[in-house]
Amino acid sequence: MSHGAARFLSADLRNARPRGRAWLAVACGAALACACGMSKHTAPTPSPTDGTGGEDTSAGGTSGTSGTSGTSAQGGTGASGGAGGSTGGRGGTSQGSGGIATSGRAGTSAGGEAGAIGVAGSASAARYALFGAPLLFAPTATGFGVSVVLSVGDPAMLTLSVREEGTEAWSEPLAPEVRASDLAEWHVDGLNAGTRYEYDVLGAEDANLVDVERVIYQGTVTTARPGGSSFSFALVSDTHIGADLSFTNQGDPTILAQTSAAIGALDPDFVVNLGDMLDFHEYGFNDPPPDGSITRAAYLNYRNSFGRTLGLVPHYAVIGGWDSESGCNSAEEIDRSRTQRLLYLPGPTPDTYPQGGSPFEDYYAFTWGDALFVMLNVYTYTPTCHLLSTYPGLPDDWTLGDAQMEWLRTTLENATAKWRFLLIHHPVGGNGGNDTDSAYGRGGGRAAHVGEQEIVHELMQQHGVQSFFYGHDHVFTDMVVDDIHYSLPGSAGAIWLFDSSETGYTTYWADSGWARVDVTPDDVHVQFLAAGGDLLDDYTLE
Question: pLDDT digit string (tens) for 210-232?
Fold first, then answer.
C-alpha cells in the first residue's frame, strides 16, 4: 500500500468479535523508550518494578542487564548521571531487553534526556521495543495515521486494533505498511467524526500474524470534529532538537518534555509545531547535515523527547529553517532531510484533506470544527539565502513561490469556516530590530506590509483570517494589525531568547512555553503559557 492511502478496517468496530489478550501497562514519558516482550500467557501482567540499568557510556547503554521486572517504559534505574546516563543504557525491562541505543546527557534514573541513536543493546528476551511513543498524524473525520519506530523487533509483525472508547469490541488486527526496517505505519479509516477511539499496537508471536498475544502500546485519539463542535489545540515552536543531545548549542529537550507533559494534561485534539523542530548547529549556521542518517536521528530524538503525548495527541508540522529543507540548499541537500521527515514525521498528503496541498507534505490545510487551519512553508520555496551576517538576503525577498501562493489564494477563496488561521514559521517578509534580523524574517506583525507578506496580509483581510500564528523569534508576543492577530507562542526548547534589539518588539515575554487555543462556535480563546504553567497573556476572538 502506498504512503497516504486509506486502510479500511476489516470489521465493523461495533460488531467485531472481542478477543483475549495479555495486557501490559506502558508509561511512555519524554526521553523514554517503551519495551515489552512476547508471552503466550493471557493473564494480566503485574505492575513492574525497577531493574538494573545499562552501562553508563557516552555512546549509550551497551547491554542492559536483565531486571527483576524493569519498568516497561524505562527499563530500570540505570546508573545516575554521566555522559551516558540511564537513558543511555535502558536495560532491564520486565523481560530484560538490553540498553536502548541513546546517549544521555546528565541523565538520572528518572529523568535522563534522550540522546542520539547509537547501537542497540542486546535484547535476548524481548521481541519488541518501541523507540518512544507512537506518532499520531493526519487525523480526519473518518480516521487517523499511526507511526511506530522499533528499536527491537520486526515492524512487519506488528498489528493495530481500534475500538470506540467505552465499547468492548475491537476491530480485527490491521497489518502495517513497513516503510523502513524499524518503521511501521497504519492509516485507519471507516470511523465516526468527533469521536474518541482507543488503539492498541500489538506484537505477533509468528510471522503469519496469527497468534497476537501482547499489547505493546495503548493510546487514544479523537477524529476531526464536525462544525458546531468545541475543541482545544496546542501550539509549540522552535524546539531545536539535534541528532546528538550531548551537543550543547541547540535546543534543550527537557523544556520540550516539560511542555509536552503540560500539553498532554490538557488533552487537546492536536498539537502544531510552528517550525525549527530540529537543529544542526554542530555543522554550522543553518548548514544542512552531511548525511540523512543525522536528520533521521534528530527526528527520532524529537519524537522521543516529545514523549507519550505524541501517542495521544495528533501532531502537525510546519517547516522552519533549521529543519534543513531551505531553498538556499541544493536539491540533494533538501531531499536528504525531506526524505527522513516523510518517513519519521509523516503528515497530510494532498489527498488527505479536500483543500489539497504539497506532495511533500510541507503546506496543507484542513478544517476542524468551525475552524480552518492553513499551514504554509516560507523556507523551502525561497531560493535566496538568509543566513544573518554571512548571506543576509533582503527583508522583502522571502516568497511562498507561485504554486503555494495560488494554492493559498484558492484555499481562502473557498473557505466557509467561521474561524480562519494561518500558521507559518515566520512572515513572508521581515521587519526586526535591525537590518540583519529584518532580512532574517524577524518582526512578526511589524512585517505585515513588507514584501510578499503584504500580499498574504491583504488576502487575510479579504477573506476574514483572524490569527496568523508563527514562530522564529523565540519569545511570546501578540500584535494586532488591521484586526488580525500576529501571535507568537514562545519557544519549546530553544536556548536563545531574543530581545527587542533583534526582534523589534516592545511588548514580549522572554520565556519558554506554548499556547493553548480553545475554539467554540462563539469565540476563540488564545492563552500564552510559560513552561512552568504561568499565564503570560491571552486574548479572545468573538
Answer: 554 678 999 999 999 999 999 99
